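User: PLIN3 protein, Pitta sordida:
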Amino acid sequence: VKEVANLTLVSSACDVVSAAYASTKESHPYIRSVCDAAEKGVKSITEATASCVQPVLTTLEPHVAAASEFASKGLDKLGEKLPLLQKPVEQIVSETKELVSSRVADAKDATSS
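Assistant: Predicted structure for PLIN3 protein:
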C-alpha cells in the first residue's frame, strides 16, 4: 500500500482530491458539518477495529509479508510498463489537452484540404 501511495500519479491525485475536499469544506458550512461528522465516525470505527484486528494480523503476518513481496515485484513491473504512473496528474492532464488539441487541429486541416 505504501508503494502504491508513493507512486507520483497516486500521490498527486491524492493531493488534488485532498485540496478539493478541504476547499469544499471551507466554502460550504453545511458540507463541513457533514464531513466533520463522517470523519469522526470513520476515526471511531478505525480505532475500534484496530484493536480487534491486531491479533489476526499478528497471526497472518508471514502471509502478509509474502503477499507484500509479491505485490511489490508486480508493482515494479507495472511501473516499467506504464511510465504514466511516474507523472503527476497535472502533467498528464496538460499532455492530454495538448494531444487532443493537436489531433483536433490535424482533423481540421485534413477536413479543410
